TrEMBL record, chain A:
Membrane topology classification: Multi-pass membrane protein
Top-level taxon in the UniProt lineage: Bacteria
Protein name per its UniProtKB record: Zinc ABC transporter permease
A GO CC term assigned to this protein in UniProt: ATP-binding cassette (ABC) transporter complex
TrEMBL record, chain B:
Feature: compositional bias, Basic and acidic residues: 252-276
PANTHER family per the UniProt record, alphabetical: IRON TRANSPORT SYSTEM ATP-BINDING PROTEIN HI_0361-RELATED (PTHR42734:SF5), METAL TRANSPORT SYSTEM ATP-BINDING PROTEIN TM_0124-RELATED (PTHR42734)
Gene3D superfamilies linked to this entry: P-loop containing nucleotide triphosphate hydrolases
Protein name as catalogued: ABC transporter
BP term (GO), one: zinc ion transport
SMART domains: AAA (SM00382)
Pfam families with a match to the protein in the record: ABC_tran
Sequence segments annotated as region (Disordered): 250-276
Record-annotated ABC transporter domain positions: 10-237
SUPFAM superfamilies: P-loop containing nucleoside triphosphate hydrolases (SSF52540)
One Gene Ontology molecular-function label: ATP hydrolysis activity
InterPro entries recorded: AAA+_ATPase (IPR003593), ABC_transporter-like_ATP-bd (IPR003439), ABC_transporter-like_CS (IPR017871), AztA-like (IPR047748), Metal_Ion_Import_ABC (IPR050153), P-loop_NTPase (IPR027417)
Amino acid sequence: MIDFLTAPFVEFSFMRRALAGCVALSVGAAPVGVFLTLRRMSLMSEAMSHAILPGAAVGFLWAGLSLPAMTLGGLVAGLAVALLSGFVARSTVLREDASLAAFYLISLAAGVLLISARGSSIDLLHILFGTVLALDDDALVLLGGIATVTLIGLAVAYRPLVMECVDPLFLRSVGRASGPVHYAFLALVVLNLVGGFAALGTLLAVGLMLLPAITARFWALDLTGLLPAAVLLALSASVAGLLVSYYASLPTGPAIVLAAGVLYLASMLLGPRGGLVWRLFPARHLEA
Amino acid sequence: MRPPAPGGTLGFRGLTLGYARHPAVHHLDGTIPAGSLTAVVGPNGAGKSTLLKGIIGEIAPLEGEVARAGLARRDIAYLPQAAEIDRAFPVGVFDLVAMGLWRRVGPWRSLTPHRAAVEAALAAVGLTGFERRPIGTLSGGQLRRALFARVLLQDARVILLDEPFAAIDARTTDELLELVHGWHAQGRTVVAVLHDLDQVARHFPSTLLLAREAVAWGATPEVLTTDNLRRARRLCEAWDEDASVCRAAADAARHAHDQGPQGHDHPHDHPHGHAA
């Protein structure tokens, strides 16, 4: 049994590399996802992953399938869209979601145009579904670096970030941290999406960011529980997805996201914090 | 609480605040002296909340300015009428109230030395035992009390309260009024937007009666006269879509300022529609 779980990783270095990449992504992206879902910005990461496309496409047109070029391009495009939409939301009547929608659509259309100008649809598939099983040293260093930056960033900005989520007006009234914290958080989202995007594909990047974070709500009540729960769920989904894809010869990215999806469905039914089953059979009410 | 820093002075010079060029507070001149306890009263739409938002800098003046001599942003505590609080966010009452310590602990310093102060603030508003309750489970009045406790912890020189006692029961209101008097005794400047005129008469020495313009401003018994209140009601709330551009020169406003708090009597015969 143990052998069944460990053999693929012991035998094949590409599986070990894939595992290392997924661990890095889980540790960094899942906590970011927790804050995204709590701020009701879940779908923003999906939009942002589209916004990254033209940057990656420019990198691709310029240097071919080169990880640094595509990452750099995606980072520039993603940060530009994040900062522009954040700026518009803070200084005009538009809310964050509407201003982001406007910019990401512009960005996505530009990206599709760029890719169709050169390159084939096979390249596009590659960009969208990634190459978990072909992570080279560069990609691993990138993913590890992003996870490190993310954890340090979240630790440094934790208190003002929570305050910005709970009561932005109050944070604005006591100091100048509100704006910088907001933009820094958006930058972390972009960083994680770009890292996951270039190395693992959009689907996996967004999937590992959001699904465990959403699932964690069924297991923990407050942030100190939600953050570790999300990381643990992301790690479990990664290992399960890698094993399934190895034994059943399925594409790895979708397998990992589906594993996270299965965890979500199970938690939604059985999770101790508001799972469906507990609603169907409620315990008797208390005295006070 | 530590011995307080002296309260701060707030000055208004030709202050016009509004939305989409329509003034909600129009050419306001005067001074809220350091250490004063002032009530702001007036009909709905009179610009009371807008004035407080202008004081903390949340909305920028259309014209004129708020002079906050020597006051940093963090020296002014503000209890909004409808807080922008996300009550679904999973934090406890203790953490919400402890936000008031931002000035002292900033983003990184430990909360542990201040634990007793947070608990004392919770006790002062009658929320002992609520420390670990998620904010989403509080009633409207309880949340209001928690926000009052946060203001208490802010230890600010100027305290702005926007309808602080709305949705709060009578006994708690009395307790919170005690806190307000305590702040006044410590020399802090307190400005509160209120609707209960009896309460104002009993507890607040000075009053600003606002109806877009200052109808009267001074000692409470002289401000809250039947005549003044009738005038305040007459000044319309309407938002005239076709209002023409206000031509009252900024100079006029400045002259008015020299006449002190009651000095908003520069000729107002420009076509404005607000003196209907």
